[in-house]
Structures are given as structure tokens and as C-alpha cells.
């Protein structure tokens, strides 16, 4: 498994670590799509912004991204409407459209994102999908969609919902473009500056601190447990990415249940697939499924790697104030594999709130949202996480995750320690690889 990014792109630059005490208008913690887009939006609004990245820019999920942009990527709108009402479902689609429009405007401004218009084809592999209801909701939210027969897809499908006028891009050229624009608007970036503590209006790194009226946590999985309690509502899942020879044309193809997706690229095919929860003991089953699927439909891949993505309990991201008690502390997380549009929505909503403006989809994404019915699958996930947590706490000798004390699991294939509760990862000797932990793990014995 390759660990680098699939995408060739210009260097993103190198930025000195934070040292000493500083004051500014806003601090963004995390340098992935969420951090850089939100920082750009705040800079454009005239704020002085400091971005603190624990490693290097785009070292997390963002460098794994397949570059697919679609208002919807699975059959979930009807369920959303049933659980939270049509106002929420329509506002959700409108917000996704607004994010899509903002990225398209950037693509027109710079002409370098390799923007390719495409339809997003959602594949229904069996009964139980109401394509007409999904299409109707999309239309009400301002997006054209048509039902097609399954035979026209490169993968087996009984029916297809073609969401019109979507696109795919080169995600890292987009990232480089956001970074350049943000620097031009005065953004200050510090790499190798992991935030180890957040207090009211203050972010601390091992060698420095920045004070600001507004703090934005854009670390993928949030690094603060309380308030907010996001660790009870989020999970981290692997996502595999592979390139293979072949052609699927210009359109994008999504499994209607959210398990895999395909797009064309430079005469080949780029495929992504869900790989199960981080720290899962039966990790090879996800990998095996992935290999079988690749072999069956795409042949031998020329490239493959994996990334980690954060999922919310109800399938919608959490974007907005961290908790009702922290009006100046913000969070954006839980995109569930849809972070290109999600991070743009985060930039739009958070910058509006910082500027004191009302945003009409605040209530859709609020981390304090209530009133949706938890499905059996979500309840099972939460219970499984609770079980893993308890197992970790009760095990007396295993290495522990410094985040909340869960027992770490060693992945021999990847040579990393992983937390099965919340997804933090550490290398073989305990150096921190990814959030929510902010410190290294103490590994006492060799495995
Ligand atoms: C294989 C794969 C394919 C995907 N394909 C698509 C796609 O086609 N379309 C789409 O829309 N989405 C896709 N996604 C999802 C998308 O890439 C993510 O949702 C998005 O990149 C998340 O961005 P982020 O900034 O929130 O998180 P990240 O990119 O993970 O960034 C978080 C950053 O925070 C930093 N950090 C963590 N802790 C700290 C700390 N304590 N102090 C300072 N910094 C810290 C990390 O180092 C990291 O750089 C894909 C994801 C994967 C894994």
C-alpha cells in the first residue's frame, strides 16, 4: 500500500513552526481542506488569520481525496427528509449547491483545477431505493436529476439516478490554489505546530501560543472532548483509493449505499471504497473485499493507498459553534467522504458567523442539532464504540491512547498503532500520526 498522495502538484511551500506568544483575529487549527478554505474566507473578509498545522499542509485526508464533487453521493435525501423534515433536506441541498458554485467560481478565476463537468450517477443495486423521491428533492433544491435504466453504467446496477451538472477536479491543484490565494490575502501559516491545548481564545503548541477572539478546530476529528462531546457521535473509517487502466468516460459513478465510487482520469479509472472502521481487528476483511472488487471490475491497479475519514452519527457534518457555551469556538467535521463541498460549506458558514451574519443552513449542520431518529445501524455503531472503549479501559497492560485511554491495536500490515474507539494513530514507537490525540503514546514493549 503506497502512503504518499496519488496527485502530482506543485509544492505547497514550507512554513516555520510557531514560536513565542502572538495575538491575531482568528486561529485556524488544522491545515487540510477545512482549515485552508476557512482561513481563506476569513482573510478575504479582512481578518488577520494564523493557521496552525501539526505536521505539513494537506497531510491528512485531503491529500487522499479523489476530487469528486456532487451535491449528493448516495441515496440519503429521502431519509433526511423523513427524519428532519423537508426544510432541512432542501436547505441541505441548497447549501451543497452554494458550495459547488463557490468552487466553480474559483475554477473560473484560476483555470487550473482541471475542472471537468460530469453527471454524478447514483447506482441502485436492488430494490428499496426511491429514486423518484430523491430526484424530486434534488429538483426542489435547485438540482436537475433523471432516472435511467441500469444497463448504461460500467458496474452492475438495476437503476441509476443521474444528478446533472456536477464535476470532478484535481484536488491538490485546488488545494495549492487555495493556499496561494490565502497567502496573498495575508494568511500566516505555521507547520509542525501541533496544538496541544485550547483554552478560551488561546491555542497552545509545544513552543508557542496564539491568542485570538475566534478559534476554529479543523483537525478532521475534533481534538477537544468537552464541551461538544463529539467523540460520542463520530467514527473514523478507512477509505481506499486506487487507479487502474480502463475507461468510464467523464461521468462519476457512486454506489447508492455509499460503499464505493469511480471517476475517469487521464485515460484510466480512479476508484475509492470504504474500508471499515479504524482499529478494527478484522481489518483484513475490508482489504480483501476491496481487492476482490478491484480485481473483478478494474483488473490490477497501478496505484493504491488509503486515507482516514470522519463520519457523523446521522450522515451530515457538524459545522458551527463547538457548543452552545462557546460562541467563538468553531468546529467542522464528519463529512463522511464528501469533504470538498463540506469544507467549502464550513468556510461559508463559519466566516458568516464570525462576521455576525445569518446563514440560512446553520440549523442543518449545527453540532447541537436534536430531533433526528437514531437508526438501528447508528445505535449499533455507538454501542460498538462504547464496547471498544470499555474493553480498552479494562485491559490492564496494553498500550493506551493518550486521548481517552483506550487500548491500542497494532496493525502489522501498516506498522501503526490504532485506537479502535476514536481512530487516533501512532507509529511503531508511539509518535502521533493523526487526531484526535494530541500527544504521543507510550509503547513499552515490542510487537
Ligand atoms: C481515499 C479518500 C477519497 C476521498 N475522495 C473524496 C472525493 O472524491 N470528494 C470529496 O468531496 N471528498 C473526498 N474525500 C473526503 C475529503 O478528502 C475529506 O473530507 C477532507 O479532505 C477533510 O478535510 P479536513 O481538512 O477536514 O481534514 P484533514 O485533511 O484530515 O485535515 C486535518 C488536518 O489537521 C491537522 N491536525 C490534526 N490535529 C492537529 C492538532 N492538534 N494541531 C494542529 N493540526 C492538527 C492534521 O495534521 C491535518 O493536516 C476522500 C477521502 C479519502 C480518505
Describe the structure.
The protein contains 9 helices and 23 strands. By secondary structure, the chain is α+β, with helices and mostly antiparallel strands. It has 3 domains: 20-65 and 172-232 and 316-365, 3-Layer(bba) Sandwich (FAD/NAD(P)-binding domain); 68-169 and 234-312, D-Amino Acid Oxidase, Chain A, domain 2 (2-Layer Sandwich), CATH 3.30.9.10; 376-434, Rieske Iron-sulfur Protein (3-layer Sandwich), CATH 2.102.10. The strands form 4 sheets. Strands 4, 5, 6, 7, 13, 14, 15, 16 and 17 form a 9-stranded mixed beta sheet that branches. A 6-stranded mixed beta sheet has the order 8-3-2-12-19-18, covered by helices on one side. A 4-stranded mixed beta sheet has the order 1-11-10-9, with no helix packed on it. Strand 21 and strand 22 form a beta hairpin. Helix 2 crosses helix 3 (86-110). It is globular, with a radius of gyration of 21 Å. 53% of the residues are buried. The model has no long low-confidence stretch (mean pLDDT 89). It binds flavin-adenine dinucleotide. Flavin-adenine dinucleotide (FAD) binds next to helix 1, strand 13, strand 17 and helix 7.
